[in-house]
Amino acid sequence: MSTQPTGGRSAHAPLSVDDPREIGGYRLHARLGAGGMGVVYLAHTPGGRPIALKAVRDEFAADPEFRRRFADEVTSARSIHGLFTAQVVDSGVDAPTPWLATAYVPGPSLQQVVKRHGPLPARTVLLLVAGIAEALQAIHRAGVVHRDLKPANVLIAEDGPRVIDFGIARAADATGLTGTGLRIGTAAYMAPEQATGLTVTPATDVFALGALAAYVAGGVLPFGGGPESAALYRVVHEEPDLSRVPPDLRGLLGRCLAKHPGDRPAPDELIDAVRAHPAVGTHPEFTDGWLPRVVSGEIGAHGELPGHIHAQPTLAAATPTAPAAAQQAPDSGDRTDPATRRARRSRRRQPVTVLAAAFLLALGGTAYYVLDHFNGVADDSSNSSGRPSTPSSRPSVPSPSQSSPSSGPAYVPDYSDAELTAPDPDYEFDLAAGKVVPAETATWYLEVADGEFVPPEDSDAFVASGYVLSPTDCVRGIETEPVTSLPFDELADERPFCVRSPDGKNIAIVRLVEAVPGEGPVTVVMSRHRESG
User: Quick one: CA dihedral 169, 175, 176, 180, positive or negative?
Assistant: First the structure.
């Protein structure tokens, strides 16, 4: 589960027509997120307490091995009672649609905090390390290894962090859906032993905590971004880059990122190191001032549950701040009516391109499947160039550039998995540059207006029926089932769509991550592919 404030206020996404209204006797109010394993809903107990209810996807529910593992992991998770974990309160492992309910945490994910506000102060990072380490102590005491600890799986409350989705990764690992030799996790935070398919231990989670803390402290991943295969290689074979981490944190985080599990500190050692750090003192406490003021205000917005709908409209977490160029748009008094802009733009001939596709990773002859579980958050990191890079949470497919020549033109990536947010209709997605810019300034754009995406009038579009879409699939779909409109309500749950440029040389595939009702922010994950040769 991952929740998110938008524009300093609480916002909520209503249930779609396909969503159930009740699961396990709990009445559902709205969606909190969606990912590779399931959908997260906000529900309430009979007494009125909010909970996060995670419903497993049908394809997993139909797999007997997954059901067995899911039941085992839920049993273990229910025995975890840490103050820094989101407590499991109920489950339905034998239901037609298996589900799990946990305490609702009214705060953003750590991923969202860093995306919005940048690296956090050293004292805040140290307190986070101590809190998460205490959560790991509770998790490990129950015989569970988290396996997918990352900023998207850490929620920030006023009184400290809450670790979520502990142990659930194992339920999908090595089932019939993932296949032999595949591993679940997020490449940028995997320990070397996990990346190479060896046995995971509590030390595996400590490595992930080190990578998480380095990202939070420095704003970039210690092993870089880009394709998952490259990140996995660096995790296994290269030393972490901690150059952007404050010097007084590098030693501690460097120990967490040791290649050999036995060289990493245990969670209790991490807590002791934090207590001994001069920036914290001997009594680390999550009192007023432990977070920057702007982050504290954002947490307060999460606690507001107005009306009868009580959830943030986050289909997958992360709302990065718009690029500097986008912040130069006219003020609200100069806004142009969306319909007027659309009519004006219909006279322009511009292609639009976006892609979000999963990768089939290979390292040492073993394939790895990177799955962002219930959060739907593709990963939260930026690569060394500063461009957001988000691993896909959908089943892996061969790279589009490896398509058979007989299937049509071959396409090569230009930029991949850029996660961007247009804060309101006065901004658009510049697909040539892979950034957000003021409306009507890009020559190759994707516009947001009246609850839908508006591509150039002379571009072709296609909406996928599943969760995987390649440029070749796009061309085939455009030829057989072209569409002329791209409304948000048809693109929920990260259903990808594609757009072909007027000259046919560029293909774009985009996943809608979040669309706040009205004229709120719209977040997408996109890439651009061009015809080779």
Answer: positive
Nearest Cα to 523, choosing from 407, 400, 376?
376
Backbone angles phi, psi at 131, to 5 degrees: -65, -45
Contact 457, 493 (CB under 8 A): no
Backbone angles phi, psi at 390, to 5 degrees: -125, 115
Q: 378: part of which helix (H) or strand (E)? A: none
Element (DSSP H or E) covering residue 238: none
Residue 400 in contact with residue 472, Cβ under 8 Å? yes
Using CA of residue 99, residue 100, residue 103, residue 109, what is the dihedral sign?
negative
Cβ–Cβ contacts within 10 Å for residue 58, how many? 10
Question: What residue ranges in 149-234 does DSSP mark as E strands?
Answer: 154-157, 160-163
CA proximity to 314, closest of 83, 448, 155: 155
Which residue type is seen at 397? V
Q: Rounded distance, CA 80 to CA 518, Å?
A: 40
Task: Note the pLDDT tens digit of each residue in 101-126.
Answer: 999 988 889 998 998 889 999 999 99
Catalytic, out of 63, 148, 165, 493: 148
The CA distance from 287 to 284, in Å, is: 9
- The yes-or-no answer on residue 272 being catalytic is no
Question: What is the pTM for the complete model shown?
Answer: 0.59
CA distances from 451 to 201, 339, 420, 517, 519 (A): 46, 12, 17, 8, 8
Q: Which of 315, 324, 319 is nearest to 9 (CA)?
A: 319
* Distance from C-alpha of 92 to C-alpha of 455, rounded to nearest angstrom: 43
How does pLDDT run across 270-298, given as a tens digit for each residue?
A: 999 999 999 997 677 898 889 998 888 87
Residue type (1 letter), 376:
G
Label residue 333 exposed, middle or buried (CB < 10 Å: 0-12, 13-18, 19+): exposed
